[in-house]
Structures are given as structure tokens and as C-alpha cells.
């Protein structure tokens, strides 16, 4: 009996060490249903191959907000085959280096054809029609120190952004900031933080929030094999979930002074709806001050919506550029109520000044909403696992002490 008792502490020590190491290991997930997280080192994989480019001049028609025909904003629409690595876009337009080292995140997957949009200043006053541009474009694995050589010409196509205010309790800005040069930076890490194959459905007027939630939950259901019937995750179903009002939209903020049944923000009603359905999906609100946490959500293949002030979009990629700057790739419908308006766009967010550069320049960030299967631990936040590990270790130690007394 003495030999048995003496051998237990050694075995226990090994087990305890294993439990603690397992508990504090970063990027751990607790689900056998998870496939590999799409985070790849930038030093491997095929480079992006550009297959086509198109140029547009934006006309704004934002219901309840800004309206401007032939604005100073241009859009470069880039068609390319994707890469595992972060690469950088540089654009010289009419002799001005208008996009400088803006990261390209291949949210459509490696070697897969995909399209993304990048905004830039056309160098004209609002109301001036631009019919063609001379440009130089380069996509590279490293940041550039100088502008690409201007060597091509392209026609510029008129393009309408028809977006309705989807918030009942918010007023949109009647002005829009002047288009300025988009300054990107070298990424602070060499990991690609993206979600592949997130649905991007067309939205009706003011339907951005239920559409974003429907897109997000369809992705979550498919990626994590949750087994939720597709008919339960439609835009119409999510209108019920978000307390959507036809012709008015959703509530963006919680307000206890509103009538009963109308006090919650859309994400609060949605969280209650998911809980009532028993799907085992949790909801988390992330404030702009904690924007870095969104990267952890993406790495865990969780879905993320971003509310930017009366408009809600899906976040499908993000890169930390250092110094409080983030490159964020979104999906949404830029032409609500019309056919063919779904787009993928990338913008730069400066968290020091709370300012967008490029796409979304006239908006803000109110909050992020993340949905997760209840049995998945978000990478980078291992505290729950650590507590479980310590609890197991303490139980084992107490058990051995009791045996020694016996």
C-alpha cells in the first residue's frame, strides 16, 4: 500500500502539469466539430493574381442622410484569385498616389476567384463627372515606398450607393467627408484573419440588420454543423428575431423609456430569440474600444456584425495595422431594394480618431455583435479553460491527501 501511495504524487504531478498547460494554451477551441481556423502565415502560399479591374464614380442616395450625385469618391473594383497571405494594394490615379499599401485580405479563399472594392479620391469636386482615369496599379507581398507607374487608362462607370437608414432611433449625417488618400500600413502580424464563404444576400430597404444576422447565422450553422433548418435562418425569420418594423427598421440602442416590447436594441431581441429557439448560440456585444477582440472571434470562425450608425454589415476579415489602425473587410448590399448590389469592401479604421478612410468614410462604429456556439471557447481568452483545469487539479490533490490520511 505504501508503494501505491508514494507513486500517486508523481503521476499526479505529470497530470497536473498537463492540465495546466492545456488550460493556458492560447487559441484553444472546445468543440470537435470545428474545422481548422483559416489563419495562415503570410510567408507561404500563392500570391494574389489580378484578373480584371474596373473603376466607378460613386453617387450617394442614403435615405435620411447624405445625397450627392457624382461625388469625389472613386471605387476600384479588383477581381483576383486569392492568397493565404496578406498582400498590399497601391494605386496611382491621374498622377496621385491615392491608395497606399492598403491590405488585401483574401476572404474568398486561396486560389479562388473573388471581387473586392477599394475606395479612393478622384481628385475632383463633388458634382464633377469623371469619365476616364489614367492609372498605375500594383499588388505586392511587401509595402511599397513609391507609387506605381501610371501606364494604363480606363473608363469610369457611374455607380449608385442606395442605402436606407435601418435604425429607428438614429439620425444620419447630412454631410459626407471629403475623399482623401487612403493610407494603409504594414500589418502588425503575419497572420491572415478571414472567414471564407460567408453568404451575402440582397437586402430590401432598411433590412440591413436582419439581413446581416441571416448571413451570419447561415455561416455559423454551416461551418459548425449546428443542424439548424435553413428555413429558420431566412431574412424574414430574422426580421422577427430583431423586432424589425416594416418601413422603419430596427432599434439600434436600448431605451427603457420606449413602450414595453420596444425597449431592446435589435441584438438584444435577437439574443432572446436564439435562446428561445434552443440553438445553443450565445451573443456578445463588443465595443469599439475592444476592437482587437474581433480578430479573436474571426479566428474562431464565429460570425460578426458591425453597426456603423443606421447601417449594419458583416465583418469577414480584419488586420491589425498597429498604432490603433485596422483594415476591415465587410460584406453588405450597397443598393438596397435593387438587384445586384451585394459587395465586399475594405476600409481603414483609425481607433484614435474614430475615423474611417476609404469605404464607409461617412459612418462610425457603434458596436460589434458576435454569435458563437455555446461550446466554443474564443481563441486568446483561455480563462474559462484555466479555471476548469485548476478545479480538476485541486480536486485531485485533495483526493490524494484524503487517501494519505487513510
How would you summarize the topology of this molecule?
Blueprint (H helix, E strand, L loop, with lengths): L1 H23 L24 E15 L3 E2 L4 E9 L5 E7 L2 E9 L8 E9 L10 E9 L11 E13 L17 E2 L9 E2 L13 H16 L11 H7 L24 H12 L3 E6 L5 H8 L3 E5 L4 E11 L2 E9 L8 E9 L4 E4 L8 E7 L9 H23 L1
Parallel strand pairs: 1-8, 5-9, 6-15
Antiparallel strand pairs: 1-2, 1-3, 3-6, 4-5, 4-7, 7-8, 10-13, 11-17, 12-13, 12-17, 13-14, 14-15, 15-16
Task: Describe the protein's architecture and organization.
It is a single chain. It is built from six helices and 17 strands. The protein is an alpha+beta fold and 406 residues long. It folds into two domains: 46 residues; 325 residues, no CATH class. The chain has a 17-stranded mixed sheet that branches. Helix 1 runs antiparallel to helix 6 and helix 2 packs across helix 3. The longest helix has 23 residues. It is globular. The protein starts with a helix and ends with a helix. The relative contact order is 0.17. The N terminus and C terminus are likely disordered.
**Helix vs. strand class:** alpha+beta
Total domains: 2
Number of helices: 6
The amount of beta strand, in percent, is 25-35%
Uncertain ranges = 1-8, 10-43, 380-394, 402-406
Outline type: globular
Write down how many β-strands occur, each being a DSSP E stretch of 2 or more residues. Answer: 17
User: How big is the Rg?
Assistant: 24 Å
Distance between the termini: 11 Å
How is the biggest beta sheet arranged?
A: 17 strands, mixed
Mean pLDDT: 87
Order of helix and strand elements from N to C terminus: HEEEEEEEEEEHHHEHEEEEEEH
Helical content, roughly? 10-25%
